[in-house]
């Protein structure tokens, strides 16, 4: 898929603030600091569209990026911040779950779940993946920061992630690096396929 243009359309918290165009959506989820803003910028060929390195207080929102005038990349709040209150955690969960629930039947075509290739998925990641499956969503896993490990470690790490998340055989897991732009074409291809067949 070729990215012709991309723009930030709206920041939302509640469903009545989501776009009403009916365009299909691809949502990105993952722990804070996993590289979510970086992958969105890399996919869209933009340096700073999704802000990199946001602070916890500012990220409890959903950002919709309109791409090629016919679909959205949706940046969901990062989860798993250390040292946040129970209330804050619950509010993130509600924002993410409400989004998945509202969009599951029509707009939402693919959930891209990000995990850091260097680490085994956390409890939060496991819960997140179970939600995605529970809602019957089409998903792929992207293992970020692949430039931080050696080539020979990549398959070992992917197998570990696959095992911990208990991925189905059919679920793709793609190593990705925003630094080196590796995995970009493959992720775009999956997005294109999920959106337009
Ligand atoms: P977010 O909190 O998930 O949006 O994560 P960011 O995109 O802000 O990235 C968090 C940190 O990881 C930043 O310092 C990025 O520069 C770094 N980072 C993100 N992706 C990569 C990558 O592919 N390779 C390397 N080496 N660093 C990355």
UniProtKB/TrEMBL annotation:
PROSITE patterns the record matches: G_ENGB
Stored Gene3D superfamilies: P-loop containing nucleotide triphosphate hydrolases (3.40.50.300)
InterPro entries: G_ENGB_dom, GTP-bd, GTP-bd_ribosome_bio_YsxC, P-loop_NTPase
Molecular function GO labels: GTP binding; metal ion binding
Biological process (GO), any one: division septum assembly
A GO cellular component annotation in the UniProt record: cytosol
Co-factor requirement: Mg(2+)
Keyword entries, A-Z: Cell cycle, Cell division, GTP-binding, Magnesium, Metal-binding, Nucleotide-binding, Septation
Role played: Necessary for normal cell division and for the maintenance of normal septation.
Family according to the record: Belongs to the TRAFAC class TrmE-Era-EngA-EngB-Septin-like GTPase superfamily. EngB GTPase family.
Protein name per Swiss-Prot or TrEMBL: Probable GTP-binding protein EngB
């Amino acid at each position: 898929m070729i990215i012709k243009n991309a723009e930030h359309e709206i920041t939302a918290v509640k469903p009545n603030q989501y776009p009403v165009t009916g365009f299909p959506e691809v949502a990105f989820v993952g722990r804070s600091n996993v590289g979510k803003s970086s992958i969105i910028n890399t996919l869209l060929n933009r340096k700073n569209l999704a802000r990199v390195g946001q602070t916890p207080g500012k990220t409890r929102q959903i950002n919709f990026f309109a791409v090629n005038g016919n679909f959205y990349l949706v940046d969901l709040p990062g989860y798993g911040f250390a040292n946040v209150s129970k209330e804050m955690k619950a509010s993130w969960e509600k924002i993410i779950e409400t989004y998945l629930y509202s969009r599951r039947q029509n707009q939402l075509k693919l959930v891209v779940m990000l995990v850091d290739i260097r680490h085994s998925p956390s409890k939060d990641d496991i819960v997140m993946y179970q939600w995605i499956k529970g809602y019957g969503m089409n998903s792929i896993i992207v293992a970020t920061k692949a430039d931080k490990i050696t080539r020979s470690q990549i398959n070992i790490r992917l197998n570990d992630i696959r095992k911990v998340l208990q991925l189905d055989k059919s679920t793709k897991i793609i190593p990705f690096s925003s630094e080196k732009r590796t995995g970009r074409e493959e992720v775009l291809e999956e997005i294109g396929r999920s959106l337009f067949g």
